[in-house]
UniProtKB/TrEMBL annotation:
<keyword id="KW-0378">Hydrolase</keyword>
<keyword id="KW-0408">Iron</keyword>
<feature type="domain" description="HhH-GPD">
    <location>
        <begin position="1"/>
        <end position="151"/>
    </location>
</feature>
<dbReference type="InterPro" id="IPR044298">
    <property type="entry name" value="MIG/MutY"/>
</dbReference>
<protein>
    <recommendedName>
        <fullName>Adenine DNA glycosylase</fullName>
        <ecNumber>3.2.2.31</ecNumber>
    </recommendedName>
</protein>
<dbReference type="InterPro" id="IPR011257">
    <property type="entry name" value="DNA_glycosylase"/>
</dbReference>
<dbReference type="InterPro" id="IPR023170">
    <property type="entry name" value="HhH_base_excis_C"/>
</dbReference>
<keyword id="KW-0004">4Fe-4S</keyword>
<keyword id="KW-0326">Glycosidase</keyword>
<dbReference type="Pfam" id="PF14815">
    <property type="entry name" value="NUDIX_4"/>
</dbReference>
<keyword id="KW-0411">Iron-sulfur</keyword>
<dbReference type="Pfam" id="PF10576">
    <property type="entry name" value="EndIII_4Fe-2S"/>
</dbReference>
<keyword id="KW-0234">DNA repair</keyword>
<dbReference type="InterPro" id="IPR029119">
    <property type="entry name" value="MutY_C"/>
</dbReference>
<comment type="similarity">
    <text>Belongs to the Nth/MutY family.</text>
</comment>
<keyword id="KW-0227">DNA damage</keyword>
<dbReference type="GO" id="GO:0016798">
    <property type="term" value="F:hydrolase activity, acting on glycosyl bonds"/>
</dbReference>
DNA sequence: CATTCGTGGCA
DNA sequence: TTGCCAAGAAT
């Protein structure tokens, strides 16, 4: 949960998961769609699939005991350098570093390190440097380093005046704290323009399906097409016959890490039905991305009422 | 090594 | 309004 996600955001999800899935088996046996519903809104949805995969692996191949051997633990899905170091140091006191964004920022300033911290090789180097001076209280040390970054050595206005390691900080000495960490600039987000359709039939059902591909995989979405797609193509793609008149619902923008969706939504009627149609009162129970929820919200407020 | 994975808060 | 950033990992 904590991968690229703030602690404050994670807390309510964490509470829900440990309550609803208190044991390894509860998580291992859970339905993927139910897990996605509980993860809804947290983003990076592959994380929960990876986690379930790791839990099943532990249950089946490690006697339901989380492996204390770092080499074994690192084999689990979703376990990378950070999670591996964090868990193995905090839970089992192995002398491994837990290098997250906070730690990279702290270390780059301490050393006035101008290397690009987005590069895996640089992160590995920082990890090895920390491990070369790791005290026996590895878990505490890792958490202290992260906490220092989260509360004192912050991105914008670091509180150098109260920093406990100020006298060791090369960037502070040089008055160049704001030059670190060095990161390569992110490429511009790709803009994508879609028409999104609420297709309702006579039985109060709506066309809704699980998203495939990689982005938002497993989350339910409304039929969505490039803006230049003809109605004939849409009917043929979806296997439905659509009434001529369509009602404009609204416009939504949704920003992802690497792309932006611009969505225009419309309400359409059909007399068709197929396996993709779902009763309207079941829509609330399926996992849906924040992007699609925005579109639905507009229908509920401005549209034909009813949801 | 670079790209692709969500979402919300903040300046 | 825009870009940055968050207890990163898989591909």
């Amino acid at each position: 949960m904590l991968q690229q996600t703030q602690v404050i955001t994670v807390i309510p999800y964490f509470e829900k998961f440990i309550t609803k899935y208190p044991t390894l088996s509860d998580l291992a046996d859970a339905d993927e769609e139910a897990l996605l519903k509980d993860w809804e809104g947290l983003g990076y949805y592959n994380r929960i699939r990876n986690f379930q995969s790791a839990v099943r692996e532990v249950k089946e191949n490690y006697g339901a005991e989380v492996p204390e051997d770092p080499d074994e633990f690192f084999k689990l899905k979703g376990v990378g350098p950070y999670i591996g170091g964090a868990v193995q140091s905090i839970a089992f006191n192995h002398l491994l570093a837990a290098v997250d964004g906070n730690v990279l920022r702290v270390m780059s300033r301490l050393n006035a390190d101008a290397r690009d911290t987005t590069k895996a090789g640089v992160q590995k180097s920082v990890k090895e440097e920390i491990e070369s001076m790791m005290p026996l209280e590895a878990g505490d040390f890792n958490q202290a380093l992260m906490e220092l970054g989260a509360t004192v050595c912050t991105p914008r206005t670091p509180k150098c005046i109260v920093c406990p390691v100020q006298e060791h900080c090369e960037a502070f000495r040089d008055n160049t704290v704001h030059d670190y960490p060095v990161k390569k600039k992110k490429p511009k987000k790709k803009e994508e323009y879609y028409n999104v359709y609420f297709i309702l039939n006579d039985r109060e059902e709506i066309y809704l399906y699980r998203q495939e591909g990689d982005l938002l995989k497993g989350m339910y979405e409304l039929p969505k097409f490039d803006v230049d797609t003809s109605m004939e193509n849409i009917e043929s793609e979806l296997g439905v016959e659509l009434d001529q008149k369509k009602v404009y619902i609204g416009s939504d923008k949704h920003v992802f890490t690497h792309k932006v969706w611009y969505m225009e939504s419309y309400l359409l009627h059909t007399t068709s039905s197929n396996e993709h149609f779902m009763p309207l009162d079941e829509v609330r129970d399926v996992p849906m991305s924040t992007a699609m929820k925005k579109v639905f919200r507009k229908l509920a407020t401005d549209g034909a009422g009813g949801l």
